[in-house]
């Protein structure tokens, strides 16, 4: 069986790393999300690998 790789990229802006961590912790522990994830992964995980990268001073993030 051949394997297909699909990548999804999201860029999000947070006021601080602490705010990012708080938001992601709330999401990961949300009861509705946990149930949806459980049902979605009955036949195996949907995601093989998850990475978080932090960017600083990217010119396209500057606000006017």
What would your notes on this structure say?
- The chain is mostly helical.
- It has a domain at 14-42.
- Helices cover 34% and strands 0% of the residues.
- It contains two helices and no strands.
- It has helices at residues 17-28, 31-40.
Write a concise synopsis of the structure shown.
This protein has helices at residues 17-28, 31-40.
Key terms:
64 residues, mainly alpha, 2 helices, 0% strand
SSE blueprint:
Elements: H1 17-28, H2 31-40
How many strands, what sense, and barrel or not for the largest sheet?
A: none
Q: Percent of residues in beta strands?
A: under 5%
Assign a percent range to the helix content.
25-40%
Number of helices: 2
Cα radius of gyration in angstroms: 16 Å
Order of helices and strands: HH
Distance between the termini: 50 Å
Report the strand count: 0
Uncertain regions: pLDDT < 50 for 5+ in a row? Answer: none
Average pLDDT number: 84
- Sheet/helix structural class: mainly alpha
Shape: flat
